Amino acid sequence: MTFAIVTHRDCLGHVTPPGHPERVERLEAVNDALAAAAFDGVLRIEAPLVAESALLRAHPKAFVDLVLSSEPEQGWASLDPDTHLSPGSLPAVRRAAGACVHAVDLVVGGTARRAFCATRPPGHHARKATAMGFCFFSNAAIGGLHALESHGLKRVAIADFDVHHGNGTQDIFWSDPRVVFCSSHQWPLYPGTGRESETGAGNIFNATLPPQSDGAAFRKVWSDRLLPAIDAHRPELVIVSAGFDAHTRDPLANLLVEDEDFAWVTERLVDLADSHCGGRLVSILEGGYELTALASSTAAHCRVLMRDSG
After folding, report:
1. CATH architecture classification, 3-305
2. What is the pLDDT averaged over residues 236-248?
3. Which residue of the set 84, 102, 125, 165 is catalytic?
4. What's this model's pTM, rounded to 2 decimal places?
5. What are the sequence ranges of the domains in the chain?
6. What contacts 33, CB < 8 A, 6 or more positions away?
7. Is there a catalytic annotation at residue 125?
8. Mean of pLDDT values over 194-202
């Protein structure tokens, strides 16, 4: 078994309006970082277009139809004030979700031990029937539901360390105890959800961090609250919503997390995957908007995912 990177050039075709933080250059920076010699020999796979049946596990058909019919011939179509489609966006949207589904197939099927989806747009703000926060479909949730429904898994854990709360993932799994959802995020901050009192069916675990929280505080909430919740769930697959906008240099928030803190939480999640599910872990790119920090954090994250994966 090995480490796989799942990506597709179509994800560069999603062009946002000038000045928008979720821009093509983000994925270009990630691709450049993952082209370094340290990643020579990893399995590189093109993301397929997601099947509609996979989308319908997480989203109602009317919403799926709305998104898939909204791409403009020119300019932008806006599904919310931050979430825009351009000509060429839909292949990116479908590849981003398809990457998660295919990565689950690779990892659960034994072709790879761990996989990273280097795709955009992100997904963790997409609720059941709402596109928001740069997100159209809930990629991590689609991957988790594929693991449960297509592969017969009974327990999945989703760990989200993006600086913004994964409200879409939480919405989709609010009443589904097969999935434990664990999120650390700055509070207060967009989207205004993620209080620690939000617990779903006892399967939702949120950990809030005040502005200016540093790596030590970040590590503490994972050590004290979130990692134990994943451990207790005994997942058969770990999915990571890997947002790197908690980085001290990121312009969209006010946490002080560094590359080594992302590497640390990745190590802990790999350890849990090794303990419970033969190392099976799928990671999905979410946020991260300062290009140098995004590139270095992604590389640090993926170097850990490569550990003992060959």
Report:
1. 3-Layer(aba) Sandwich (3.40)
2. 98
3. 125
4. 0.98
5. 3-305
6. 295, 296, 298, 299
7. yes
8. 98
